[in-house]
Amino acid sequence: MTLLKYEALKNVQKNGVVAVVRGYSEENSYKISKACIDGGVKAIELAFTSPNADTTIKHLSDEFSEDDKVVVGAGTVLDAPTARIAIIAGAKFIVSPSFNSETAKLCNLYNVPYVPGCFTPTEVQSALTYGSDLIKIFPGSIAGKGVIKEIQGPFPYANIMPSGGVSLDNMNEWFDNGAFVVGVGGSLVGPGKDDKYDEIKDNAEAFHKKFEEIIKK
């Protein structure tokens, strides 16, 4: 694994929590992301279902270029052209809901971590074969917390990020089962749909505090 990919993944791991942001507008996406960062959750996965997602990624990447704890990535990336747009905008990691070999190759070419969504051993093996250093188990709410240890039986070096179904109340269970990092959507950024950014900041502070308690165990 090359240095740039290593640094990006280590920054994601140090954050512990990746905020999955889906805004209804460019401004809304930015404000949700900013609230998360202000609250201590500084790993942002900005979904490409959000309007002008690449513009928001560039805005955040430029604004926080001097803060090495902030790592901005792109989510819901379905194909290689979208991945390239995100990377040019400044995305430091690429997340997909499913595995796509062309996206994997493009990310390898640009030295950017590709985090594909997987659900079966076959999908996990394909992702590892194409150089994915972090695997998203999605949806985590259906797979269940025990899936991490089951996957790491045949694939002991697979780093796992559960996404979907992670909450403040169960986050410690995911880490107890071997999660590398967790992706959190609605239970963190849900108030954003009603422009309640102070609530998002409060949620982020709670998630950040919880993660710090977990790693101190």
Please explain how this structure is put together:
The mean pLDDT is 95. The protein has a 4-stranded parallel sheet with strand order 3-2-1-9. With 217 residues, it is an alpha/beta fold. The chain contains 11 helices and 9 strands.
* Spatial strand arrangement across the major sheet: 3-2-1-9
How many structural domains does the protein architecture include? 1
- Percent of sequence in beta strands: 5-15%
In whole angstroms, how far apart are the ends?
A: 29 Å
What is the level-2 CATH architecture name?
A: Alpha-Beta Barrel
- The coarse silhouette is globular
Determine the number of helices (DSSP H or I, runs of at least 4 residues): 11
CATH H level, superfamily name: Aldolase class I
Mean pLDDT: 95
What CATH calls the topology is TIM Barrel
Number of strands: 9
Helix content: 40-55%
Radius of gyration: 16 Å
Order of H and E elements: HEHEHEHEHEEHEHHEHEHH
Quickly give the structural class: alpha/beta
So what's the CATH class? Answer: Alpha Beta
The low-confidence runs, each spanning 5 or more residues with pLDDT under 50, are: none
